[in-house]
Design a protein that fits this description.
By secondary structure, the protein is mainly alpha-helical. Helix content is about 85%, strand content about 0%.
Length: about 325
């Protein structure tokens, strides 16, 4: 059991670091290839790997949709079309600053999921959690606006790409919440990841084909594909296969509560890589990142304390129910 927990924690660590590294890698690739074909080449490869893996691991019966085809398509589209296409499109439109903005938005996923749960299922969070959400939002605004909020909202060239990234992040949150339901129904992380990736990537491919036919993007040349092949290989192996399946498996073992702590490493990894690359990092990037890390860490610790207080009470009530009447 101890080894299983260590493996799960290691996979969550690798996933978070991979997600933090994928934005600087993508930014470098966008000097040569558009974000649309970059995403398609990446996830077609990921899909093939997952299909072979699922067939070997669980057999042909794992490919049955069991009446959940539309759900799989919807959640897969949210992740592999809405999230992957829009987040890199927005990052590319913003240029170099988009690298840090996309990473910061990614780290806000737990906070966004809290808001979505509050709106959809009326699960009102504790006041301290709302304070952490607000703190994280302030941190994100500092990074996105570079401290000049007025100038940001008058510059439509920045608002639209930032909105694309925000919508993309919401798409991944929806996908993650859908995975929880499939897990309850007995689906493995690999099965959910594979079938949703298959259907979502098909949707993304159709969208890119339409964009190509309209002339918005063009099919990359052989030279472009050769130049960007190392970037795509990294994106397939780490943020793709390992992060996708590894994260879903990791949080199922160590619980999402513990997994949230690893998301602190997403903006930190991006920031460190940008510093190493010599990219322009402002004081607002540092301060905003710190705000988000503090908000995530504080809320995680608070939830742990709340869990410890409620668990003894629940155990006591369960014992009372087991006593003969």
């Amino acid at each position: 059991m101890k080894n299983r927990v260590l493996v799960a924690a290691f996979l969550c660590l690798i996933s978070a670091v991979s997600w933090g590294a994928m934005f600087p890698v993508a930014n470098h690739a966008f000097h040569h290839i558009d974000p649309f074909y970059f995403t398609i080449f990446r996830y077609v490869s990921v899909t093939i790997i997952l299909l072979v893996w699922l067939l070997w691991k669980e057999g042909k019966q794992a490919f049955r949709f069991e009446g959940k085809g539309w759900q799989l398509w919807f959640f897969g589209t949210m992740a592999f079309a809405v999230y992957n296409l829009l987040i890199f499109w927005g990052q590319d439109l913003l240029g170099s600053p988009g690298t840090m903005i996309a990473s910061i938005m990614e780290s806000l996923m737990p906070m966004i999921s809290i808001i979505i749960a509050w709106i959809l299922i009326r699960q009102r969070p504790h006041a301290f959690t709302l304070f952490c959400v607000f703190l994280g939002f302030i941190g994100a605004m500092l990074v996105v606006t570079k401290g000049d909020i007025g100038a940001f909202f008058t510059a439509t060239d920045d608002i639209i790409p930032s909105l694309l990234i925000f919508i993309a992040v919401i798409g991944w949150v929806v996908y993650t919440m859908g995975g929880g339901q499939f897990s309850k129904d007995g689906w493995s992380a690999l099965r959910y990841s594979t079938l949703s990736c298959l259907l979502g990537t098909a949707t993304a491919t159709v969208a890119v084909v339409v964009a190509t036919l309209t002339g918005y993007v063009s099919f990359p040349t052989v030279e472009t594909m050769i130049i960007t092949s190392p970037h795509i290989a990294f994106m397939v192996i780490f943020p793709g296969v390992i992060a996708l399946v590894g994260w879903n498996y990791g949080v199922s073992v160590i619980t999402p509560l513990n997994g949230l702590l690893f998301l602190n490493l997403v903006p930190v990894t991006t920031l460190v890589i940008q510093i190493i690359q010599g990219a322009g990092v402002t004081a607002y990037d540092y301060i905003g990142t710190i705000f988000i890390i503090v908000s995530l860490f504080s809320n995680n610790i608070f939830l742990r304390l709340q869990q410890r207080r409620t668990e003894p009470k629940e155990e006591y009530e369960e014992r009372l129910q087991e006593l003969p009447s």
